[in-house]
Amino acid sequence: MPASIVVGTQWGDEGKGKATDYLADRMDFVVRYQGGNNAGHTILAEGHTLKLQLIPSGILYPHITSVIADGVVVDPRALLEEMDGLSAVGIDPSHLAVSGNCHMIMPYHLELEKVTERFLGKNALGTTKRGIGPAYADKAARIGLRIQDLFDEKIFRAKLEIVLREKNLVLTRVYGRLPLTSDLILDDYLRYAERLRPHVADTSRLIHDGLRAGKNVLLEGAQGTMLDLDKGTYPFVTSSNPVAGYALASVGIGPREVERVIGITKAYVTRVGAGPFPTEDTGPEGERLGERGREFGTVTGRKRRCGWFDAVIARYAARVNGLTELFVTKLDVLSGFDSVKVCTAYRADGTLYEDVPSHQSLFHAAEPVYEELEGWDEDLAQVRAFAELPAAARKYLDRLQDLAGVPIGVVSVGPGREQSLSADATSHRDDA
Ligand code: IMP
Fold it and tell me: What letter does residue 42 receive in the DSSP assignment?
């Protein structure tokens, strides 16, 4: 059986957790492939609202093995807290496997991110302050500590002392902070190690064997294409690669294993933190999108910036991820607007761009070119079949898939599992 990839097509918060949860029924493995506890999935299932940051949403299903693959940076304390939170509502986290190759977020990563963001002042990125960037930086600098290091105390202590010497110099001499003590960190992390031990596995082998045995594997990205370190709006991005291609490197499987690449696309667009956002609406309509969509960050509680659907980035996401289908979320939020706008191209420096301009200055200057479509008033929360959607909403979706160049597979109209409507990509076109 092949693998499927779920990837965000915008700046994160597209509703990937919901899509994964919808697809999970048919899956045997759900694998998280990058990011850390900067992501946040809110899932409404069996009467519980669950906020997951590291653990894939497949954990809600006892038949699924949830996996955290090599490319994720793990704050062990956050992971254990999340596991405890699941146990507290009766969900057994024992079928979670974590790669020993995952790099760990250490206390000095959190401390350093705090001071460096402050140091950047008005140029700050607006990170989630979870230590993600500093942990990935150490991974690339080859001074990171991995989960497997926890299981050899001598190695762990030696590596920690070397790194901490340099980190403490930076903290004390550059930023005037107090130094951190290796013994305290060691005590905490060795305690975490004991609890993590049963979950640590050779996840690459596990997934490979699963695929050979005909199992279904869902690879779940965090954040979104426009926050990708290489393909996003650098430097206003996260420090990992949410794009579909990275799933393979992180898990350790080849491209021929993948059949579907599902792009999660909110029916409008949001962004948290700093950086360009061509379709941002800072007026009353944007405000209304934020209120109706309850657009506050799952991790930091920050108010999200809101704007209209951007077909330029949708086409870009389709191209750089090789999307096979779209999963459109939060269509219900658009009810009640007289008209709904869709950005079909940008204008920058007197030129029309139908694709993301390759130079950042043009992207920063991009003015959206809008097409206005008829709105609809009906509340969509009770709609249970694609054909029951108001004609104007179906027309909107048709336009989205035409502009993106990718068929829509599913549309969701609310947070519940039953509010995901399967949209056979062609059947709804006749009467739209
Ligand atoms: P970091 O990932 O904490 O380093 O933050 C870098 C940028 O990515 C900031 O603009 C964050 O707001 C953004 N970001 C990180 N994770 C998410 C997410 O899950 N959803 C939306 N934005 C995110």
Answer: E
Give per-residue pLDDT as tens, 370-384: 999 999 999 999 999
41 flagged as catalytic: yes
- 313 contact partners, CB below 8 Å, separation of at least 6: 9, 10, 225, 226, 269, 356
* Nearest protein Cα to ligand 1, atom 9: 127
Is the peptide bond preceding residue 2 cis, with omega within 30 degrees of 0? no
Residue 144 to residue 251: CA distance in whole angstroms: 19
Catalytic residue among 21, 25, 28, 41: 41
Percent composition of the chain: helix, strand, coil (DSSP 3-state, to 5): 40, 20, 40
| Global confidence as pTM | 0.95
**What pLDDT, in 10s, does the model give residues 59-80?**
888 999 999 999 999 999 999 9
Kindly give the distance from the C-alpha atom of residue 227 to the centroid of ligand 1, in angstroms, as a whole number.
7
Question: For residue 64, how far is the Cα from the chain centroid?
Answer: 20
Q: Can you spell out the DSSP letters for 224-266?
A: -GGG-TTTSSTTSS-SS--SHHHHHHHHT--GGGEEEEEEEEE
Ligand 1 centroid – CA 191 distance (Å):
29
How crowded is residue 361: how many other Cβ atoms within 10 Å of its Cβ?
11
Quick one: DSSP state of residue 170? Answer: I
- The strand order across the sheet containing 258-266 reads 200-201, 96-99, 65-68, 29-32, 217-220, 3-8, 258-266, 325-329, 408-412, 420-422
Residue 7's nearest CA partner among 46, 43, 38, 33 is 33
Of all protein residues, the one whose alpha carbon is nearest to atom 8 of ligand 1 is 238
SS3 (DSSP) at 17: helix
